[in-house]
Amino acid sequence: MATHNSWFKSLFSYKLKLIMKSLKLFSSVFFMLVIHQLQAQEKPALGWKDVSKWTFNRPATLSPNGEWIALASGPVEGDLKMTIRKTNDTLSRNYPIGAMANSISFSNDSKFAAFKVALKDSEAKAAKKTNKPVYDKLLLVSLSDNKQTTFEKVKSFSFSEKSPEWIAIQFAPAENASKEKDAPKGTDVLLYNLITKKSYNVGNVSEFAFNKTGSQFAYVIDAAGQNGNGIFLRDMKTGITTALDNDKAVYQKLGWNEQGTAFALLKANKNDKYKDDVYSMLGFNKINGDLTNKVIYNGIDDKIFPANMGINTNATPFWSDDQTVLFLGVNTLTKKEDKKEEKKEDKKSDTLAKAKPEVKKDDIEKPDMIIWNWQDKRLQSAQQTQEMRDKNFSYLSAYRIADKKFIQLADSNMRSVSVNPKSLYAIGYDNSKYELMGNLDGQSYVDVYLIDLKTFGKKLLFEKMYASNGGRLVIAPNGTLASYYLDGVFYSINLESGKTANLTGKIKSSFVDELDDHNVIKPATQNLGWSADSKYALIKDNYDLWKISADGNSITPLSDNWKSKKTEVATRFRVDADEKGVDLSKDQYFAVFNTKNKKNGIGILPAGKSKINILFLDDNAYQSFSKAEQAKVFTYTKSNFQQSPDYYVSTTGDLSTAKKVTTNTPDQAKYAWSSGVKLIDYVSANGDSLQAAIYLPANYVPGKAYPTITYIYERLTDDLNTYTMPTFPGGGFNKAMYTSNGYAVLMPDIKYKLNDPGMSAVACVVPAVKAAIATGIVDEKNVAIHGHSWGGYQTSFLITQTNIFKAAAAGAPLTNMISMYSLIYWNSGGTNQAIFEASQGRLTPGYWDNWDAFARNSPVYHIKKVQTPLLLLHNDKDGAVDFTQGIEYYNGLRRLNKPVVMITYRGENHGIAKLPNRKDYAVRMMEYFDYMLKGKPAPEWWSKGVNRLDMEKHLEARAFDGGEEN
Predict the structure, then answer these.
(1) CB 3.0–4.6 Å: which of 549, 658, 703, 712 could bond 650 by disulfide?
(2) Name one GO biological process term (predicted).
């Protein structure tokens, strides 16, 4: 018994020690958790002043050999740096580059890098105040030893293409240089040898270009008095320079062919008959110094050249692949007024003339008017807005060298003509018969023509092809095959024989985009083009990618029934800038996306294989995928909602060796940040299964409900894992700012029914808010809604149909669908009718036959039901949604004594462009939501308003550098 008791006491003592140890461990863990929570709570929320100082990375550039990666970084406002670092070790160098993030270039052998350095932020602001001209420097860096060479007052620069030896540097014109239209444009260009460090100056250069191999350097001289003007060619190996053409003329639009074996340009001469300069075209091939072949075409001297037209200076001429044809643009020339013959007057007539002076033409008072005719294919406003485009429009033409024959390929009816690869054929698109109706109802049709560039013969391929769903031919690299889409099916056509083949008809899948709910007939899924050998078309259904032979007989699924997993081939990453089609003999890379859980990833189609392998698929976003030009080195960015994009580098094709080589947003750790994102499923009032994203506030505590901003547009959850960079947005709302400041943000998907865009928003958004409230995250008493443009319209409409929101902010909203339908979209000059009937408006036909739908979905017709306070933004120069739409809603609410404030930034368009205005609106919007949802004091501009006479003082009091604290 004693032994038993001893054993029991020992066991009890042992267990007691374990319990005490566990309690101690638990206390330690609990204490650490509490400390961690307190530390997290101690972090301040991001303020608007902090946004100006927010440092982040700009896009990166990979060197041709893949050994170096470079990018600019720095604050939203302020001075930046360029970082060049090794991809395979930790060697990294920084260079100050002033207040502008200019791009960087590497020499072809990756031994040198060059980039422009701008003025510092303070210097640039001081120069702007005094209208002092500003100049960039060029910094040339030797990557092996970091030796730096600086060049002052640089305008542009270029490495010598494939040759690693040279850099050409063009300097800015002198401060006192004339800025008149006809003043010479030439400045000094320095040819600097990267190996020998020797340099050669060429004066009065207006344009220059190395050919692709870097063996030839073509340049144009434009000097004072046109002395020595011409086109010159320098052999970069021998240094011998040849004057290929000299004249008292202006030369411009210099461009090499892709192979670097020929180039063309334009030459301008004065002509007494015409107001504008008259251009001729020069083509050079068979490059061999003084023996270089020269082709001259003068245009207006040709009897068959179109009357009253000339060679267009706005289009760069180019060679056909076989160098038998030169392509150029032509446009209308303006003739000078005919000079009246001077008559010899006798004394009597002279006396009469003095008694009654002849009325000059310029003195005649004329009406200032516009005539709007119902038969105009484009509205007069559209013609006015697009006047310069029309004046400068270039009609593609061709000049066949062998028989010196000119033909105008494009004309006023068939304006769009493109030359196929190999330059055997061209495709023309003529919408002249359908343009008027297309501008009215948005349904676009086109006649498609085939032009034989050997005979210049033209024939109709397709009549009235439906173009609203992307009705254009996709041309194969051989130039003789094309694919196209018609009524839910993809086809191919042999341009030589005219034979067509059904590509997708045998596939048991839909090639109609299932998520496109616009008023478009069977919108097409993606066509990813042709294989490099022109044997296969690569066409995607809603999920899977198919490799289909040109005759449609061989069909290979490249993704293995991904539809069953709700995974799709989102797009293909083009890693070879010079590719001609998809080279299936090389590895091909694709963006992969799961439409259900919103996971992203990258897939690879190995060379010669027929199955895409998913390399990874997770809760991150993968972008900016690229490959080094000369090495098997890959880069991409990886990010998610909480982590900003960082670059990763891999030296293996399966990306298994990828490592992070950048650090982004270093200040983020100082601030409270969102605790994550939750994807929820819900069912709309229309019975559709939809999703919404809830972005959690900083320091989120489970079980606690938070004030919430519901941000809406259309479908938003596909960007679930996209990082939001703190900035001053053109629409005022920045998700990162709001989550940092203790708000949850709800972003629901919206699915539309035709003729019910507003009611569709109600049917989707209200159930989404209720589902979000059910999670416990959203405080149902403190939910607001915000949207801009189309989102602004839906916000304005939702508050007429529900009182679920405590506050609303609508930016640039449509408010009266009936009046908006026939107003003008001033940014283009066209009417809104086409936008309503075939695009975002989703209301068709016009209100005269559809009054109930237009009224049912117009906020102003339900304005009496509004009980939600509204902050309204509408700028007076809004070229997308007419300013009267905001005025109409504001005045209606004001008349009903509803709480509404409208903010207008004078001179601003649809979004806010000027930084001081962007700052101001961002701060005001958050002040408004803080008052409405958090109970903070009401800003005076909301509670009392600001008298016009006191506005200047009000703005001065609120002025801040980088934002006002909340």
Answers:
(1) 658
(2) proteolysis
β pairing state of 778-788 and 706-711: parallel
Q: Which of 182, 166, 178 is nearest to 217 (CA)?
A: 166
Domain closes at, from 227, 257, 276 = 276
DSSP letter (8 states) at residue 512:
B
Tokens encoding 142: 């030797």
Kindly state whether residue 368 falls inside one of the protein's structural domains. no
Q: What is the pLDDT of residue 337?
A: 54
The letter for the amino acid at 354 is K
- In this structure, the dihedral spanned by the alpha carbons of residues 888, 894, 900 and 906, taken in order and rounded to 10 degrees, is 50
Query: Length of the chain, please?
Result: 966
Cβ atoms of 218 and 256 closer than 8 Å: yes
CA distance 715 to 734: 18
Q: Chain centroid to CA 465: how far?
A: 28
Q: What is the CATH number of the domain that holds 865?
A: 3.40.50.1820
**Range in 325-329, 820-824, 945-949, 961-965 with the lowest mean pLDDT:** 961-965
Contact 778, 744 (CB under 8 A): yes
Are 284 and 295 a contacting pair, CB within 8 Å? yes
Average pLDDT score over residue span 625-633: 97
Q: Is residue 399 part of a domain?
A: no
Number of domains in the chain: 2
Q: How confident is the model at residue 336 (pLDDT cuts 50, 70, 90)?
A: low
Q: What is the CA radius of gyration of the chain?
A: 33
Q: How far, in Å, CA of 803 to CA of 159, rounded?
A: 63
Distance (Å, rounded) from C-alpha 776 to C-alpha 403?
A: 80
d(CA 70, CA 113): 9
Q: Which DSSP state fits 605? A: E
Closest to 233 (Cα-Cα) out of 258, 254, 250: 254
Smallest CA-to-CA distance from 622 within 604, 605, 647 is with 647
Degrees, nearest 5: CA angle 510-515-516: 100
Whole-angstrom distance, CA of residue 255 vs CA of residue 262: 9
In-domain check, residue 118: yes
Q: Which domain holds residue 763?
A: 675-958
- Residue 860 is predicted with a pLDDT of 98
Residue 355 corresponds to which amino acid? A
Task: Write the pLDDT tens digit of every residue in 15-44.
Answer: 445 545 554 544 444 444 444 454 445 899
**Domain presence at residue 659:** no
The pTM assigned to this predicted structure is 0.90
Q: Reply yes or no on whether the pLDDT at 966 is more than 90.
A: no
Please give the C-alpha separations between residue 211 and each of 465, 744, 793, 867, in angstroms, as whole numbers: 40, 55, 52, 67
Confidence tier at 373 by pLDDT (50, 70, 90): confident
Which residues are within 8 A (CB) of 951 and not within 5 positions of it... i.e. 6 or more apart?
A: none
What pLDDT, in 10s, does the model give residues 790-837? 999 999 999 999 999 999 999 999 999 999 999 999 999 999 999 999
CATH value at residue 239: 2.120.10
H-assigned helices in 463-616: none
Q: What pLDDT was estimated at residue 41?
A: 56
Taking a C-beta distance cutoff of 8 angstroms, is the pair 175, 133 a contact?
yes
Of the residues 257, 276, 295, which one is the last residue of a structural domain?
276
DSSP state of 910: S
Looking at residue 593, what is its pLDDT?
98
Q: Residue 273 gets which letter from DSSP?
A: T
SS3 178: coil
Over residues 308-329, mean pLDDT:
94
Average pLDDT, the chain: 91
HSE of 563, CA atoms in CB hemisphere, 13 A = 15
Nearest to 625 by CA among 608, 612, 637: 637
CA triple 318-319-320, angle to 5 deg: 130
Distance CA 229, CA 246 (A): 6
Instruction: Determine the residue type at 552.
Output: G
